[in-house]
Amino acid sequence: MTASTIYVQFADSTDEEIISVLASPQDPKFYPNQGTVLSDDPRYVAFYDNTPANPPSLKAGLVVPGQ
């Protein structure tokens, strides 16, 4: 299976921690530190694993790592 490309927002300019998943590129004035990662990237896997499962809607729209 091929990993998907995901638009993300990082916590800061180091690109070490993902704090948000975006539907598409956003205005960087309002959403700084944007980038893309593959769904099997360890930073995305950590974001996914740390997203609460309750309420279920929080994880419902996220790509499962590696897919």
Blueprint (SSEs and pairs):
Elements: E1 5-10, E2 18-22, E3 34-38, H1 42-49, H2 57-60
Antiparallel strand pairs: 1-2, 1-3
Radius of gyration: 12 Å
**Beta-strand percent range:** 15-25%
The secondary-structure element order is EEEHH
> Got a strand count?
3
Instruction: Work out the count of structural domains.
Output: 1
Multimeric status of the protein: single chain
* Mean pLDDT across all amino acids: 94
Q: Tell me the number of helical segments per DSSP (H or I, 4 or more residues long).
A: 2
Percentage of residues assigned to helices: 10-25%
Summarize the biggest pleated sheet: 3 strands, antiparallel
From the N-terminal CA to the C-terminal CA, the straight-line distance is 7 Å
Mass-distribution shape: globular
Structural class: alpha+beta
Which residues sit in consecutive blocks of at least 5 with pLDDT less than 50?
none
The order of strands across the largest sheet is: 2-1-3
